[in-house]
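Why should sequence recovery work at all? Because a backbone constrains its sequence more than one might expect. Tight turns favour small or flexible residues, buried strands favour hydrophobic ones, and helices have their own preferences. The token representation captures these environments compactly. In the example below, the structure is given first.
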């Protein structure tokens, strides 16, 4: 009888073991059928735009895009001129070293470098380069309602993008900056814009750019350089920025050119994230617009722009502050859609030309 009870217990234990093994096998099968622990779509930060099928295509296949004058051209100039131009380039690349909060000459800017916006010291195609400055200034600018020279243009950058003050006209530093910018345009025909100049003009969306869609894309693709709070990353010297702040106290202010959405979106499309270029963009058009909307919806230092756009009818379509001469809202002027605004402005201008 004892032997029978033992046998019965052994059989029962064996049955339990078989059941446990079967359940374990079923769970393993289900586990691997669902990706073996890999993140599913719901685990991944949601993207406002499905760019999984995005194919990087060059924004401009032209073989004659502007390139800066060569070192050989520079060295043919007089020694003093070469030194002045090189000093100007140095200031453009490391502005904060001279004029930032720890500046060796004066403490008059937010700590950003001109190069943080004008990539590769203003020489990168579609990187907000300086190629067209020398050939198009002096010129009338509707924002001020006046004829402006290059000194005024440089001053605007210091006051708006660097949220500070500019070195005085006639100073060694201002003259060096202007000399460098002028040199970069010496291979461009007077009055012309070379191919690849300035910022890439991105096609309009048929909807408004959306900060809520831009945020997850920013978190997925931009934080490694600009950080989640938009504060950027300083260089090793802790004086200049390697990757600039995009919002907050040390960012460009509300009067800066990149605070206009079309400018910022085109800049992002051709240059961001790190490693992207006009030849190999990494973002869809929608992603670029939405990231720009997110960044420019965050806090920026304010700028007194009460004297900007004295002729209200000349105000640009994406200037984000009213009043306006048209019937579109301030929100639409900031985020779009822009096509209807641009169309109306074109019609008004054409009618005025006939008058």
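From this structural description, the recovered sequence reads:
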């Amino acid at each position: 009888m004892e032997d029978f009870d033992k046998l019965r217990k052994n059989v029962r234990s064996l049955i339990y073991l078989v059941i446990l093994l079967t359940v374990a096998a079923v769970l393993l099968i289900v586990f691997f059928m669902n990706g073996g622990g890999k993140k599913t779509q719901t685990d991944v930060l949601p993207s406002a735009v499905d760019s999984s099928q995005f194919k990087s295509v060059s924004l401009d296949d032209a073989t004659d895009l502007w390139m800066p004058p060569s070192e050989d051209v520079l060295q043919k100039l007089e020694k003093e001129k070469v030194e002045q131009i090189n000093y100007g380039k140095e200031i453009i690349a490391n502005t904060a070293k001279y004029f930032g909060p720890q500046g060796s000459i004066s403490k008059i800017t937010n700590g950003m470098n001109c190069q943080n916006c004008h990539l590769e010291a203003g020489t990168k195609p579609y990187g907000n380069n300086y190629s067209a400055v020398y050939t198009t200034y002096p010129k009338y600018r509707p924002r001020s309602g006046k004829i402006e020279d290059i000194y005024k243009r440089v001053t605007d950058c210091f006051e708006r993008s660097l949220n500070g003050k500019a070195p005085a006209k006639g100073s060694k530093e201002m003259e060096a900056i202007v000399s460098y910018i002028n040199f970069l345009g010496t291979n461009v025909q007077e009055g012309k814009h070379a191919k690849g100049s300035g910022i890439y003009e991105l096609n309009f969306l048929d909807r408004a750019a959306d900060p809520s869609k831009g945020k997850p894309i920013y978190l997925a693709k931009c934080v490694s350089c600009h950080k989640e709070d938009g504060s950027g990353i300083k260089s090793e010297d802790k004086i200049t920025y390697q990757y600039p702040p995009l919002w907050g106290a040390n960012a460009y202010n509300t009067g800066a050119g990149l605070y206009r959405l079309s400018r910022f979106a085109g800049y992002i499309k051709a240059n961001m994230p790190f490693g992207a270029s006009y030849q190999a963009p990494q973002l869809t058009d929608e992603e670029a617009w939405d990231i720009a909307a997110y960044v420019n919806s965050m806090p920026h230092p304010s700028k007194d722009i009460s004297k900007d756009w004295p002729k209200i009818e000349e105000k640009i379509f994406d200037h984000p502050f009213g009043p306006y001469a048209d019937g579109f809202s301030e929100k639409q002027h900031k985020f779009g859609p822009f096509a209807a605004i641009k169309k109306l402005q074109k019609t008004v201008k054409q009618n005025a030309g006939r008058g």
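A few observations help interpret the result. The chain is about 40% helix and 5% strand.
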